[in-house]
Amino acid sequence: MGEKTFEERELILELFPGTSPELLPPGEVLYYRDGEGRVHIQENPLHLVLEPLDAAPSITPLVCEACLRHISRSSGQFFRFGVGSSGRHFRYVALCRDTERCSGSARPGRLREILLRGILP
How far apart are CA 77 and CA 71, in angstroms? Predict the structure, then answer.
């Protein structure tokens, strides 16, 4: 019977449950879009859901905050997420509409930064 192995993150959270997410070593970051058009960024146990905003007519290009590429307005979209417990304050990010393609070139560090901006006050 083999020994059970634990990830470094699991050990830290088990021994020090109040550890700030900023201090944890990076884990697997999931970045995907659901059927309703919302974007999810998840790194266990943290999960951020970004709401899509309606597109405004414009020709100004955007920079995707996940993959840091310049994209056309038709290839990108603005999303928002609530900050704080009141839900009255929002932060906005521009991301690629095609999250599957974007996730291939998105840097885990950038995704983690967006996630922590949404989770931590």
Answer: 10
> Collapsing DSSP states into helix, strand and coil, what is residue 48?
strand
The reply to whether 17 falls in a domain is no
Output the CA torsion sign for 12, 13, 18, 24: positive
DSSP 3-state assignment of 70? strand
Q: Say whether 21 sits in a helix, a strand or coil.
A: helix
Residue-number span of the structural domain to which 102 is assigned: 29-119
Which tens digits make up the pLDDT trace of 112-121? 888 888 776 5
CA distance 39 to 80: 10
Instruction: Please state the domain count of the chain.
Output: 1
Question: How far is CA 100 from its chain centroid?
Answer: 13
- pTM over 0.85, yes/no: no
Q: How many angstroms separate the Cα of 39 from the Cα of each of 71, 82, 109?
A: 18, 13, 17
Nearest CA among 34, 29, 104 for reference residue 64 = 104
CB atoms within 10 A of CB 37: 12
